[in-house]
Automatic annotation (TrEMBL):
Main location: membrane
Record's protein name: Amino acid permease
Swiss-Prot/TrEMBL keywords: Membrane, Transmembrane, Transmembrane helix
Any Pfam family hit: AA_permease_2
Cellular compartments annotated: Membrane
One cellular component term from this protein's GO annotations in UniProt: membrane
UniProt KW Cell inner membrane keyword: no
Record InterPro entries: AA/rel_permease1, APC_K+_Transporter
Amino acid sequence: MAVLAAEATDPALPADERPPDTGERHRLTAVTGLAALSLDAMASVAYGPEAIVLVLAAAGAHGLGFTLPVTLAIAGLLAVLVASYRQVIAAFPDGGGSYAVARTHLGARTSLVAAASLVLDYVLNVAVAVTAGVAALTSAFPALYADRVWLCLAVLVLVTAVNLRGIVESARVFMVPTAVFVVSILVLVAVGLFRSAPVSTAAAAGHASVLADNATTVGTLLLLKAFASGCSALTGVEALANAVPSFRTPRVRRAQRAEVALGAVLGVMLVGLSVLISRFHLQPVEGVTVLAQLADASLGHTWAFYVVQFATMILLALSANTSFGGLPVLLKLLARDNYLPHVFALKADRQVHRHGVLALALVSAALLVLSGGDTNTLVPLFAIGVFIGFTVAQVGMVRHWRGRRERGWRGKALLNGFGAVLTGVSAVVVTATKFEEGAWLIVIAVPLLVAAFETVHRAYARIGERLGLGRVPEPPHRDRSLIVVPVSHLSRLTVEALNAATSLGDEVRAVTVCHADAEDRAQSADLARDWALWDPGVPLVRLTSERRALGRPIAAYVRDVSAPGTRVTVLIPEVEPDRLWQRLLQNQRGALVAHAVRRDTDAVICRLRFRLS
């Protein structure tokens, strides 16, 4: 909260009295936030309705008649989620979504379950989005199918590179394809509503139907399975709540507007496409997506059909950006709470959590390679984690409202409680129906991630205890200071090192290592002679070593001269070359000495950089 307070600008203050801008231009508006953080949810209309149809097709044409009722149930759940996450955004403006809610109201262990499930879902979203986008590309150009893994990795590198430049830059890049896709789908729905029959069926011609023959029974289990499959369209709804700090001030209001806009647009597209599926009596076929059939039926096999296809392909590939916007913020909060390495809390100049972005890219790349770029391998694992997060967040919000008891709290708690029941049932249904298809991996992975978080937390707790964090330390005192300077020759580097050492310590000693062979003994004798002639006022200590080692003899000498009341510092002079590649020309002796001294002693290590330029 202190960070947000420092970043906020009070509009009531005169311009010259307002705090300086700390990077607001690198943050999101409601529109750019919708473009950067909702691609996952928007793109889900390409596979959400199809997932419903493919399940209901098992019951034949009669089963397809339940497409619209199942979609309306999903749209109702979407409305509850949007209303609930508007409240989460207002109550937890630091972001973090279900993790932040659970940490405050449900305890550390529950918050880690929510965090682990969201981490897995974000990573899987990247892999599914990229493979689905590349699958659309290889469907149009079959010759590229053999190279699909490399194409997936290329798309991942592109999205990662854009996000490393900042979330605003990524939003600007993705605004155009997002707008083209949304407009295309809305036009498809609007035109289709005025048609009584498909204008074209060319896309499905010649493709085998996957509709089951002589199947007329539609049971509860089938409807639940269709509902569970269609719920993949709801992933991404929580991303805006997770990334509230990425918005410009007023952050809460902008994030809430983006959340409502996302829910409205997504709901209209899902219901509209389902209405057209029923109107055109569409039947799923092999090798052609349901969305492609709808575009063909509504717009005809014209240029408009290809616009929808290419817009879908691009948005599917880029919908991984939702994870790049939400996961780094979640990792930052986990790092802040000592559940992940603190490096994940660092920001680059453009308000980018660079280490979170890179970690997400590396894990996603591994998934793409292991899955062979196949979407169907990854989809069964998708959407389970996010429903766990949905449920945890809404249960936590019920406790939030009961604790505050502000005006209207009963209605808000009722909304969250109702949502928790719906999403909890959905989580059970999704897990049960997809368990044998790979959902068991998520059931195992979530506890393993929680255990990893707790291991990191215990390590930080031990470090904090030993450092005395949170306690008033003893007053500092001055010890006698002994500076040890490793040298091998006389040069300007040696002079700079002794200048620095005599400025820092009460006593300075130069040390050089002499090995047993004749050449080294001759070089050591020459150095001793030159040192005596130079007479810098610093003694030169010659350390003999039978083995060809450099760091260990110096570390042994440091141990020998260490004594109570004496602070020993090893000052290692090193050359800083003009060019990065020139570092390859160096012998790396400084690194070897530093490693040995750090490993075997408690001495302070000081590495002096001497710039050649």
